Structures
1.
Amino acid sequence: MPAIVQLLSRAASPMSGVAATARSIARPGAGQGAVLRAVLAIAALVLAAFSVPRDAAAQATPPVVATPAALLMDFDSGTILFERAADTQVQPANLTKIMTAAAVFRALAEGKLKADDTLSVSEYAWRKGGAPSGSTAMFAALNSRIAVSDLLRGMIIQSGNDAAMVLAEGIAGNELAFAGKMNEEAKRIGLTGSTFRNASGLSDPGQLTTARDMARLAAFIIRTYPDKYEIYSEKEFTWNKIRQLNRNPLLGMSLGADGLTTGYLKDSGFNLVGSALQNGQRLVLVLLGAKSDKERAEDARKLLEWGFRTFEQKPLFARDEPVGEAVLFGGEKGSVPLVGASAISLLVARDGSEKLTAKIHYTGPVPAPVAKGQQLATLQVYRGEQVALEVPLFAAADVAQGPLWRRALDAGYELSVSLLRQGYAKVKERIGMKDTTG
């Protein structure tokens, strides 16, 4: 059954105090020590954030931006600092090439392709994505052969549709088959709101993505392929005697930006995925649907400047430090500690003007045996009603199946709780109660 342990709710006012509760359908006493440790850790974080005078609270208020869909994320912690319509699907336009790059980078990493391999420019790629198309192009010559390293620069720096198509054909034989590889890679990365139909980003009503997915994709490329990511920071590239500048406006704003790219379609507006690094802190920004390139650039500057100025990183839990416990069914122990895959941190407003709530979600009791490293739960930290941080939690130890008498005892307990839950559900249905259990 779903179990939600609410670790902390902190009111917006520094004077309102800290309220900590633990709510879970579980055996009495199970996991109370770990829950208390989690409460105290996050309480300490919030109290530290509230050390700035009350008149500084306006600093945490996000800037006014016009772009209809946007997301600002801290790279290291995954903390969401700002979001608006982050799960609304739109056509990605040229942003599609970020997914194309991810699929190409995987082929290179697996040895299925080499940077100095040369690929042929087909008539399809030349006519549909090259000079005759009138779209953004690398201006690759028909039937010429071009090294993969140059095609990547033609696609990333020059936004060349022809370069993307040549890479797709070279890897999968045709663009449609390559789109299948893009969707496989998207699933591996964890993109849940995206579907890709081509490698270039040319208009297709079935090709859709979200601001949240684009942020995840950008972070994945930065983290997984740091040497390839450097191409996004190159400011120009010349091919076929035609010099073209990088189309990313962030590179010239003195914000520490070093990638990724922009896009435009009449149906989806002006889009951008960017990243910037200042004083060791990296932010990832996505804007979808701006009305003009000017609006896109202004909103990008506002959000990045606000993000770097307003937030600071606070540690929540060290590596291997228990965050909480999951109740077990039929195990030699009644519970198992939960830990993150690495240290867990969160970006919080420097002025401490935020309401933070943390919860552990898991379906339990969890049947034994349990293996160390098995994912059992998720830690979610909310900023107001929005999820600011979501981290998977894993079993910190092996727990074997318990003796027959313990399994029988656990089964009897679970049956009684189940019957009580069913009766409560009937009462709620009869009197029209609203569920307030989180």
2.
Amino acid sequence: MTALKKENQIIFYSIKGSTIKKVFIIDLVTGTGIYYIVKFISASVLIGMIGSVVGTEGIKKVFKCQLQ
């Protein structure tokens, strides 16, 4: 039986500050805003949560289409 020698690898990813800022604005701020608007209109927490997720994912897809 031979012993396999494993090499330890450390991988570093660098993320631009603008990317972090964009994710923060789209996911947290916009998602929260959409949640409260939909919750206010429908008076339902569940519908507000679903609307928030659908809204933020829709905005992300629109931004991806504009970049292409």
